[in-house]
Specification:
Length: 413
C-alpha cells in the first residue's frame, strides 16, 4: 500500500485512497498558508458558530505562527481534506493509477521544502535569524528570560553553531533539488527539522505548526523510497536501482531545467549575501560606536546632591548602554529602561543625549572625559537639570570567554 515514485500501472484501492488524502492535505496546507487571509470572513464565521470561540485574537499573529487563526486554518484544512478526499474516492473509483499526478505532487513538495530550507539556512549562516545577544540582554537576569528568549540567546551566541545549522539546512535543500538525491535530501531535512520541532515544542517557540509540517513533508518524500533505504541500512540486503517514473522524456527539457535550477539557487544565495553585506545585524559588536559598552554608574550627582544607589530611585542612573549608532539606553536604579538619542563628537569630547519627543533635536548638552580606559565622566544638563555621572565599563564573561581546546576542569558558571 506504500506510495512509491516508481511506475505502477494498477494501484490498489487503499493506495489510491492514501494518495488522495495526502495530496488533499498538503495541497490545502500550502494553498491556505498563502491565501487564508482572503477567507477571513468565512473562517471567522467558523470560529464563532462552529468552534464557539469568543475571546479576542489577531489574524496576523504579530509574528507568531501558532496563533488562534493559524489553528483555525489547520482545523479547516483537516475538515476540507476529509471532505475532498472522500468525494474524490467515491467519484473516481475506477481510475487505475495516479502516476503522473503523484510525480508533480512530489515535485511541488520538493520545491516548497527547498525554498524554506535555503531560506532559513542562509538566514542562519549570515546570522540574521539568531543575532548575537545585545548589551541590554546581557544585563537581564536569566530568570527574566522567556523560554523562547533563552533559546534565542543560546542560539545567537555561537556563530559557529549558526553556521552548522545553516549548512545542514542548505545541504538538505540542495540534495532535494536533483531527483536522484532527493531521498538523501529528505532524510537530512527530516533530521534537521526534527531538531527544530523539538526546540519549538520544548522552548515554546511559536513555529510549531509550520516546522511540524516541513518535517512531515520531508518524511513523506523519504517514505516513497524508504524500502530501498531499510533494505540497505537496516536489513543489510542488496537492493536494486530505483526506477523513477518520469512523464517527460525530452533531454533538452531536462537540460533546461538543470540550468534553471542552478541559476535560481545562485540568485537565491547571491541576494542573501548582498543583504548580509549591507546589514550589520547579527555580527558580534559590529561597527562599534564611540563609547561602546555597558557603563555602570559609580556616582551620580544631580544639582550638587549625590543620589544614593537605592533600588527605589527613579532618577539615579544604574547603567548607560551604548550599543548602536546614535542611540543609547539608560537603566535607572528602579529598573526603568529609557531610550535616548546619543550622538558623540570625539574630537571636542562632547555628547548629545536627548529625548526626541520631549526635546526635539537638542544641541550638545554634555561634555565627557575618559581618565582611564574603563572610566567615563559625563557632565551636562538633561531635562533642565545639571548632572555629573561617573561610570565604569562593565565586562561580561559571556562576551569575553573564548573557545579552548584544553580545559583541565569544566568552566561552568
Amino acid at each position: 500500500m506504500s506510495l512509491s515514485q516508481e511506475y505502477d500501472e494498477n494501484w490498489s484501492i487503499w493506495k489510491k485512497a492514501l494518495f488522495k488524502f495526502i495530496f488533499s492535505y498538503f495541497s490545502l496546507y500550502i494553498i491556505l498558508r498563502f491565501l487564508n487571509r482572503f477567507f477571513e470572513i468565512p473562517f471567522k464565521w467558523v470560529i464563532k458558530n462552529i468552534l464557539g470561540l469568543s475571546y479576542s485574537y489577531n489574524v496576523n499573529g504579530f509574528g507568531s505562527g501558532d496563533h488562534t487563526f493559524a489553528y483555525v486554518t489547520l482545523f479547516i484544512n483537516i475538515a476540507l481534506c476529509f471532505l475532498i478526499s472522500s468525494l474524490w474516492i467515491l467519484m473516481d473509483i475506477r481510475k487505475k493509477s495516479y502516476n503522473q499526478l503523484f510525480y508533480w505532487f512530489v515535485v511541488c513538495l520538493r520545491i516548497f521544502l527547498v525554498y524554506n530550507m535555503l531560506y532559513y539556512g542562509f538566514f542562519k549562516i549570515i546570522q540574521l535569524q539568531f543575532s548575537y545577544p545585545s548589551l541590554t540582554k546581557m544585563l537581564e537576569p536569566l530568570g527574566n528570560s522567556s523560554p523562547m528568549g533563552l533559546a534565542w540567546t543560546y542560539l545567537g551566541y555561537s556563530k559557529s553553531y549558526n553556521l552548522f545549522m545553516g549548512l545542514m539546512e542548505i545541504t538538505g535543500g540542495l540534495l532535494l533539488i536533483p531527483r536522484r538525491t532527493s531521498t538523501s535530501g529528505a532524510f537530512i531535512t527530516m533530521a534537521v527539522m526534527m531538531h527544530v520541532v523539538v526546540m519549538n515544542f520544548t522552548y515554546d517557540i511559536p513555529v510549531k505548526l509550520f516546522s511540524s509540517h516541513l518535517f512531515l513533508m520531508a518524511f513523506f518524500i523519504f517514505s516513497t523510497d524508504s524500502k530501498r533505504f531499510f533494505n540497505l541500512f537496516v536489513k543489510n540486503k542488496a537492493t536494486p536501482a530505483y526506477k523513477f517514473y518520469n512523464p517527460i522524456k525530452n533531454k533538452i527539457y531536462h537540460k533546461v531545467i538543470f540550468w534553471v535550477k542552478s541559476t535560481l539557487v545562485l540568485l537565491f544565495a547571491g541576494l542573501f549575501f548582498i543583504n548580509a553585506a549591507g546589514n550589520g545585524r547579527g555580527k558580534k559588536n559590529n561597527n562599534k560606536p564611540p563609547l561602546f559598552g555597558v557603563w555602570e554608574v559609580e556616582e551620580f550627582i544631580k544639582e550638587g546632591d549625590t543620589l544614593l544607589p537605592l533600588l527605589t530611585e527613579n532618577e539615579r542612573w544604574h547603567y548607560l548602554i551604548v550599543e548602536n549608532k546614535n542611540s543609547a539606553v539608560i537603566k535607572t536604579m528602579s529598573d526603568l529602561t529609557l531610550s535616548y538619542k546619543f550622538e558623540s563628537d570625539t574630537i571636542e569630547k562632547k555628547l548629545k543625549i536627548y529625548n526626541v519627543v520631549t526635546n526635539g533635536r537638542a544641541k550638545y548638552n554634555f561634555k565627557y572625559q575618559k581618565p582611564e580606559e574603563k572610566k567615563l565622566v559625563l557632565e551636562g544638563n538633561l531635562s533642565s537639570k545639571h548632572i555629573i555621572v561617573k561610570l565604569k565599563r562593565k565586562d561580561f564573561l559571556l562576551d569575553s570567554r573564548e573557545f579552548h581546546w584544553i580545559n583541565e576542569t569544566p568552566f561552568n558558571r
